Amino acid sequence: MSPLSRRAPALSALAVLLLTGCAGNSADKAGSADPVATTAVRTPGASSPPSARAARPLARSVPVGLRIPAIGVDTRVMRLGLAADGGVQVPPVEEHDRAGWYEHSPTPGQTGPSVILAHVTVGQYGDGVFRHLDRLRRGDRITARLENGTTAEFAVTDVRTVDKAAFPTQEVYGNVDRPELRLITCGGPRTGDGYRDNVIVFAALSAGSGAASSSAGER
Predict the structure, then answer these.
(1) Separation between Cα atoms, residue 200 and residue 56, nearest integer Å
(2) Cβ neighbours around 144 below 10 Å, total
(3) pTM of the model
(4) Is 8 strand, coil or helix?
(5) Which CATH superfamily is 5-22+60-205 part of?
(6) Is 25's pLDDT higher than 60?
(7) What is the 3-state secondary structure (H, E, C) of 171-187?
(8) Euclidean distance between CA atoms 210 and 152, whole angstroms
């Protein structure tokens, strides 16, 4: 059973709240969702994952760092829980912002969809850590550094831009029978102080994950 299975109903209700607070300006106000048709942007051939040997799930270990070489990301990862209003927390708006792992999802490498999110912009500080997330393509590599000193290596299988009003909850949070990763930020056109869409990256664990990290214990 996926570690997410007991939490799926709650996550379904929370999904539409995820990253509505992408910092569009210095006040970091939430953008309103524009109720228009969903726009899905898929990378070529993204309907099937890259061919690779099946990867064995990893032991539970909290992520402390994230590297995405194709878009120049090398960031620390913080834990995110639930906000007072019941929505998913987002990382703070600050200079040199970090990504955040949603702690009620599996850790990277466990069976199920592990969820990491970050801002596309951080108000007066400019670009957020996931500013170029929509540039990723099928097969690009993502490395999560774990608290136990190992790494979880993923390959991108799909990249989508979707209207927040039609967030694909089941595809993002639904149970899967292998270790997968979801990276989420805001995107698309600006609407007032925020963004209309979400950018979602889907990735699958690669064989050979679990090697020792050169930066174990990062915070």
Answers:
(1) 24
(2) 30
(3) 0.79
(4) helix
(5) Sortase (2.40.260.10)
(6) no
(7) HHHCCCCCEEEEEEEEE
(8) 6
**How far is it, in rounded angstroms, from Cα 113 to Cα 91?**
19
pLDDT, one tens digit per residue, over 66-109 is 999 999 999 999 999 998 888 888 999 999 999 999 999 999 99
In three-state secondary structure terms, 123 is helix
The DSSP secondary structure of 54-71, one letter per residue, reads: PPPPPPP--EEEEEEGGG
Distance between CA atoms of 161 and 143, rounded to whole angstroms?
Answer: 22
- Given a contact cutoff of 8 angstroms between Cβ atoms, the answer to whether 146 and 152 are in contact is yes
Inform me whether the pLDDT recorded for 147 exceeds 90. yes
CB within 8 A of 129, min separation 6: which ones? 73, 75, 97, 98, 99, 118, 119
Do 43 and 200 contact (CB within 8 A), yes or no?
A: no
Neighbour-count burial of 151, counting CB atoms closer than 10 A to its CB (0-12 exposed, 13-18 middle, 19+ buried): buried
For residue 14, is pLDDT > 50?
no
pLDDT for the residue 53: 56
* Annotated domain spans of the chain: 5-22+60-205
